Amino acid sequence: MADRKIPFIGAPETNPETKPFFDGTAAGKFLIRRCTACKKAHWYPRSLCPFCFGDCAWEEASGDGTIYSMSVMKRAETPYAIAYVQLAEGPSMLTNIFTDNLDSLKIGQKVKVKLVPTEGGPPLPVFTPA
Q1: What pTM did the predictor assign?
Q2: Can you give the CATH number for the domain in which 111 is found?
Q3: Best label site of 40, 53, 84, 124, fewest CB within 10 Å?
């Protein structure tokens, strides 16, 4: 992304459910939650499994994903892409795709997580073409 301006990203607000996730990004890890009962992974971090209400544990995710749906926002001062990425572990997450060539992005394209710095807080996950 040498030629593209990275938009300002403010520090995320954390709470007791999300603090371990952001502690992980600060340590360079991308974490997701997995239910200890039904074994399904999910995103956004929550205390109870959204499928069976079982207890959940944190696990390090691969960071691999596929673009499920996306839009390129060209009216902004710096155009950007927002997408739903289907993680290799199963859940989808709404995120940004960082690339120098927004027009090259395609549904079904493989992407990889990148943790980007924020202003005064822990890094946030975005994705880049794999």
Answers
A1: 0.89
A2: 2.40.50.840
A3: 53
